Amino acid sequence: MTSAELLKNLEQQIDSFEVRSSQLKMLEACKSVLANKGVLLVEAPTGVGKTFAYAIPAILSGKKTIISTRTINLQSQLFEKDLPMLAKAHRFKFALAKGFSNYLCKLSLTGYQPKSMKELEERSRLLRWMDETETGDREELNPPSELWYDVGADSDGCVRKDCEFYNECFYFQAREHWFRSEILIVNHSLLAADAALYMQSGKGLLPQAEALIVDEAHALEEAFSKAFTQRVSWGGIQSLLHQASALDRKLQLKITDILNGLEIASRTFFEELPKKYARSPFRIQKEFALKAEAEGMMQVLGILYEQLGKFVQENPLSLFTTVEQKAPVVQVRKLGAWVGRLWQTLAEFTDPQEGQQPKVRWVEQYKGGASLSVAPLYPKDEIQTGLLSRFDSVILTSATLSIGGDFGYYQNQLGISGKALALDPVFDYSQQAKVFVHKLEPPAGGTFSPFYLEELTQRIRAIVERSKGGALVLFTNARVMESVHQALVLTLGSNYLLLRQGQEPRQKLLEKFKADGNALLLGLDSFWEGIDVPGQALRTLIITRLPFEVPDDPMNEARVEKIEQEGKNAFTDYMLPRAALRLKQGFGRLIRSKQDVGEVHLLDGRLLTKSYGRKLLGALPKGVRVETVD
After folding, report:
1. Going by DSSP bridges, is the β-strand pair 282-283/359-366 parallel, antiparallel, or unpaired?
2. Which of 21, 71, 111, 560 is deepest in the core (most CB within 10 A)?
3. What distance in Å separates the CA atoms of residue 527 and residue 500, rounded to the nearest whole number?
4. C-alpha 111: how far from its chain's center?
5. Is 468's pLDDT higher than 80?
6. Cis ω before 281 (30° cut-off from 0)
7. Segment 295-347, tens digit of pLDDT
């Protein structure tokens, strides 16, 4: 059976499913790169049916394939719906891979010593679940995170084949399924963790595969940047001290003075940090102002690391006969690895070593503390060496990879080359969507005057009243969102359900928004993508301001500086492409099916007055009608 024939069979079996020409085009391109090797970039607009277009050729190729997604929603759709459907038409094995920390550790739970009645009750609940569950997946039970630190599986603490539960270990049983499967579903975070381990040891977490398919590929760079960011914070040190206080009693006697010394040294350090670096976030470009204090912390961490390592050496698991005796060793191993990472992160500030890939270092303040962070300027090397180079065939796909069909920005960010395919929109945007650009100029320099906030609120209120709700309002600034929300509560609160990011978990807000049908949802960064609300519950999209990156963000500041040092224009080569792709992502929240119709209101007059306005509007789908509102 060919890929096209399998797709046609699905069309006959599934109601409301139709094969599209763009889907066939993508399917053939994926089939070609899987057969001939290489890299393929595919921009597949909403409605193309890209999942079947890449999954069918991968299944029929017979090659072991890893499929990575960013969101849990798409991961679940693949594992619970799309792949089972395809498996009925053509038998193959598939599995869902999750990281170590998602699984219960039987050794840690069995040997866990509760310190309160509440912990005793939680332990009893977990023990009952351990006997009932087939997967040991944290998602089934959702236990408290503090307790899960002690009883969840962990790559640092795991003793592998030295554990008496090894043959019935939830994590290693899951891994067996990974290795037996032909198609393995992962998320970008696990993909990045796999790349990090591969770069350290030459061997990854995941099974070796011939093909890699990255869905939601626009988010790959961010996932790798996050995974390769090292951080030390006051809150993190406090957590470490708390965990250390629950270690083996004999060890406690040896390290009590060390822990006291660490608390004093770190408290002094984090109290001085905001005094030296008052602006937050602050990018460190010269010598670190608290080098001596950081070295003092490192010295104490080094002594602690040595003592923890000594305990593990002097207490091999072979000496013990009971689980209660072995479990503390696991906790010490876990804590030792944590201490080692903290030491290494501080070393990035006291003695920075610049390799081929430059790094960005910064200080950040938050309520009740401060932190130090270091990350690669661009994770190109991590993506190339740690990931892409390990596969014969690579397919990167998303609804937002190009700007007007040009993939140059995305390819440059990831340091990749290959065949690029931009598919035409499936929806008739000339009939389904109308864009209104409002002549409202946001204040320059990020300051928001009362006049501007009042005007912004009035326009949003008028749009919502006209559409009778069903509106998603996207912001770029939390304070502006809060101000607008407070004002709308007074004027619209009695007529519409008003939802704001931060009130409840994201998924809960979306469920309420869909169920109500006429609600108003205000959101920031994470609401610009990954939201799928087909139908009339979302009929109006309001974008309050063009989504340009914050210029004084340490990462953006460093990247802009590097681009300008190379003699390029940072605005046209970096800031503008990122804003265009973000605008495209935001716009994509509105039309999710051929039946959807709606309006998009862009409340930023710079689209009309600035030379770059045309390029940003050009990033929107072909055929969209644009009108101006005074």
Report:
1. antiparallel
2. 111
3. 11
4. 33
5. yes
6. yes
7. 999 999 999 999 999 999 988 877 787 788 888 888 899 999 999 999 999 99
Q: How many CA atoms lie within 13 A of 369 on its CB side?
A: 12
The two tokens of residue 148 are: 């899960």
Q: Do domains 3-93+181-225+379-422 and 429-629 have the same CATH topology?
A: yes
Q: Let me know how long the chain is.
A: 630
Single-letter amino acid code for the residue at 292: A
**CA–CA dist 213, 217 (Å, integer):** 9
State pLDDT tens for residues 376-411: 999 999 999 999 999 999 999 999 999 989 999 999
Please tell me the distance from the alpha carbon of residue 40 to that of residue 25, in angstroms, as a whole number.
Answer: 13
Structure tokens at 406: 């040009």
Which residue stretches of 355-422 are H helix?
A: 380-386, 408-414
Distance of CA 413 to the CA centre of its chain: 17
According to DSSP, the residues that pair with 543 across neighbouring strands are 474, 602
Task: Count Cβ atoms below 10 Å from residue 245 Cβ, excluding itself.
Answer: 12
User: At residue 527, does pLDDT exceed 70?
Assistant: yes
Residue whose tokens read 């090659």: 63
Measure the CA–CA gap between 416 and 245, rounded to whole angstroms.
Answer: 48
Question: Which of these, 346, 273, 270, 355, lies nearest to 305 by C-alpha position?
Answer: 346
Mean pLDDT of the chain: 92
Looking at 133-277, list the stretches that DSSP marks H as alpha helix, in order from N- to C-terminal side. 145-151, 170-180, 188-201, 220-227, 234-244, 249-276
Which helix (H) or strand (E) segment holds residue 460: the answer is helix 450-467
Six token digits for residue 270: 């984090």
DSSP string covering 326-353: HHHHHHHHHHHHHHHHHHHHHHHHHS--
Q: Which residues pair with 214 in a beta bridge?
A: 68, 396
Q: Does domain 3-93+181-225+379-422 have CATH number 3.30.230.10?
A: no
**Angle in degrees, 0-180, between the axes of helices 450-467 and 478-492, rounded to the nearest 10:** 50
Distance CA 491, CA 11 (A): 49
How many CB atoms sit inside 10 A of residue 76's CB? 14
Residue 356, pLDDT score: 63
CB 29 within 8 A of CB 56: no
CATH class of 230-376: mainly alpha
The answer to whether residues 414 and 36 touch, using CB atoms and an 8 Å cutoff, is no
Q: Domain segments of the chain: what residues?
A: 3-93+181-225+379-422, 100-165, 230-376, 429-629
Question: Which residue do the tokens 């595919």 mark?
Answer: 42
Q: Could you tell me the strand order of the sheet in which 183-187 lies?
A: 94-96, 183-187, 65-69, 211-214, 393-398, 38-43, 419-422
Residue 84 buriedness (CB in 10 A; 0-12 / 13-18 / 19+): exposed
What is the fold, at CATH topology level, of the domain defined by 429-629?
Rossmann fold (3.40.50)
Report how far residue 596's alpha carbon sits from residue 538's, in angstroms, rounded to the nearest whole number. 9
- Three-state secondary-structure class, residue 115: coil
Q: Which tokens hold the place of 364?
A: 């950040």
Structure tokens at 84: 């089972």
- CA 542/CA 580 separation, integer angstroms: 16
Which backbone phi and psi does 574 adopt, to 5 degrees? -130, -60
Q: Tell me if residue 51 falls in helix, strand or coil.
A: helix
Helices 323-350 and 234-244 sit at what angle, rounded to 10 degrees?
Answer: 150
Percent of the chain with pLDDT over 90: 76
Give the C-alpha distances (Å, rounded to integers) separating 123 from 111, 115, 137, 242, 321: 10, 11, 16, 19, 22
Q: Rounded CA gap, 330 and 555, in Å?
A: 37
